[in-house]
């Protein structure tokens, strides 16, 4: 009888300990999820269209220099290696992943970036600009064809500011200055056996851009675009488990 009572006590103690550990684990998980925690997702795509068919003419548009920032959302260097300051999740985990696949499979778009990450965006949050460098490598300019910044802020609502430039290399040589003419005259005096490569400068031309700030509603897909590039944006709030 005493042994049975001891077993019952041990069983009750074990059950109580298990319940305490489970409650502690749930509380710990809830504490690990901060308030105003979101998964932010961005997809940047390029319309497959000949540059000559773009109706906008932005060659002479004044473009502000890039914002200096230490943070990057997605950058591809000259060798094709991608990097980010954020801890990005896999593309197959993104809500926008299916939309990106459908656009790519349509043959009308080329997805250049699909990125998502988790971050807390509390009220009065002022985000740092996140650098973006994607698309084809423009050899003469030494940069990617699409570059700029995306900034996320929050007052009462989340806002996304997209500042992207879509560049192309012009086929028209830059005007020759007097100094250039003097240099060419000197080169003509070189011996016939000397090999000199005189490659005209290829200026960088602005094809299109996106300059837009948009209020974001959670769990709604937002689309910002220009004639050649588009940005899909999606935010999902992550609720703490009770």
Which blocks of ≥5 consecutive residues have pLDDT under 50? 11-30, 180-200
Helix segment count? 3
Derived from helix and strand composition plus strand pairing, the structural class reads: alpha+beta
Separation of termini? 42 Å
The main sheet comes to: 7 strands, mixed
Average residue-wise pLDDT:
80
Overview of this protein structure:
The chain has one domain. The protein is an alpha+beta fold and 242 residues long. The protein is built from 3 helices and 11 strands; from the N terminus they run αβββαβββββαβββ. Strand 7 (143-154) and strand 8 (158-169) form a beta hairpin. The two termini are 42 Å apart. The strands form 2 sheets. Strands 2, 3, 5, 6, 7, 8 and 9 form a 7-stranded mixed β-sheet that branches. A 4-stranded antiparallel β-sheet has the order 4-1-11-10, covered by helices on one side. It has helices at 2-32, 97-105, 178-188; strands spanning 37-47, 72-76, 82-83, 109-120, 125-126, 130-138, 143-154, 158-169, 204-216, 222-225, 229-237. The protein is 21% helix and 38% strand. The longest helix is centred in the first third of the chain and has 31 residues, at 2-32.
């Amino acid at each position: 009888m005493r042994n049975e009572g001891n077993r019952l006590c041990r069983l009750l103690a074990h059950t109580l300990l298990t319940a305490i550990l489970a409650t502690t684990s749930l509380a710990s998980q809830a504490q690990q999820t901060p308030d105003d925690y979101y998964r932010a997702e961005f997809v940047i795509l390029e319309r497959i269209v000949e540059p000559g068919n773009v109706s906008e003419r932005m060659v002479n548009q004044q473009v502000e220099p890039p914002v200096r920032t230490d943070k990057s959302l997605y950058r591809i260097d000259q060798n094709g290696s991608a990097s980010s300051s954020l801890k990005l999740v896999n593309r197959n985990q993104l809500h926008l992943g299916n939309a990106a696949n459908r656009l790519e499979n349509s043959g009308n778009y080329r997805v250049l970036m699909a990125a998502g990450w988790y971050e807390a965006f509390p009220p009065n949050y002022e985000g740092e600009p996140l650098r973006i460098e994607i698309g084809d490598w423009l050899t003469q300019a030494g940069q990617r064809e699409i570059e700029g910044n995306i900034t996320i802020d929050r007052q009462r609502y989340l806002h996304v500011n997209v500042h992207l430039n879509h560049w192309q290399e012009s086929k028209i040589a830059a005007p020759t200055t007097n100094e250039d003419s003097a240099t060419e005259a000197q080169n003509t005096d070189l011996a016939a056996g000397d090999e000199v490569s005189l490659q005209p400068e290829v200026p960088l031309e602005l094809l299109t851009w996106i300059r837009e700030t948009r209020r974001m509603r959670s769990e709604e897909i937002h689309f910002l675009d220009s004639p050649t590039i588009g940005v899909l944006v999606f935010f999902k709030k992550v609720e703490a488990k009770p």
